[in-house]
Amino acid sequence: MDANAFRDRIARWRLDVNLSQVALDRECGFREGTIGKLEEGERALTDEMLVRILICTDRDLLWTLVEGCGSLFKRLQPIEPSLRQELGRERPPQPLDEDGELQRALDAMFANMEIVLKKQTRAADRRALMMEILSEAAARDARADGQRRKRAAGPRKKKSA
Predict the structure, then answer these.
(1) Please, are residues 24 and 5 in contact by the beta-carbon 8 Å criterion?
(2) Contact 14/3 with Cβ under 8 angstroms?
(3) Crossing angle, helix 126-153 and helix 61-76, to 10 degrees?
(4) Which of 38, 45, 84, 86 is buried most, with the most CB atoms less than 10 Å from its CB?
(5) C-alpha dihedral (81, 86, 90, 91), degrees to nearest 10
């Protein structure tokens, strides 16, 4: 997912804070007409532009990303079971929890109760929990990209003379 996935929401965000296109251009430090071009799909939305727009429309980066992923998940989730059945494919096994600190704390729960309580407190903070989930997903996505690149590369064939 890239910044352009959020382009269709700019007008709603702008109107939610009662800003015209020109006013939002000024707030963000853009040339006049930039917001209009973004809203019309005539210009690509960069990551920096997206963050500027979020800040100037009083939106939170984390919750905006969660909202975007959440709405996509809500649309796709009902489709998955029937397609898995049609394709004869089971769900892949869930990745193991790679939180070694948590595992050690659970193994020695009474000796390390302080660590367990800190983890539970962090989980109770929805923002911290969502940040942790998104960071873990990004790390797994990066590892998967690296594995795909390694498989695709393979050995080079020698040229025949």
Answers:
(1) no
(2) no
(3) 70
(4) 38
(5) -40
Are 45 and 7 in contact, with CB atoms under 8 Å apart?
yes
pTM (2 d.p.): 0.56
Smallest CA-to-CA distance from 11 within 44, 48, 53 is with 53
Domains and CATH numbers, the chain: 3-60 (1.10.260.40), 100-150 (no CATH)
Using the structure block, give the residue that is written with the tokens 């659970």: 106
In angstroms, the CA 161 to CA 125 distance is 65
List the Cα angle 97/99/104 in 5-degree steps. 110
Which two three-digit tokens encode residue 60? 């939170």
Q: Where do we find the tokens 């109760």?
A: 113
- Model confidence pLDDT, tens digit, residues 95-117: 666 677 766 666 665 554 565 55
Q: How far apart are CA 103 and CA 109, in angstroms?
A: 9
> Are the C-beta atoms of 64 and 54 separated by less than 8 Å?
yes
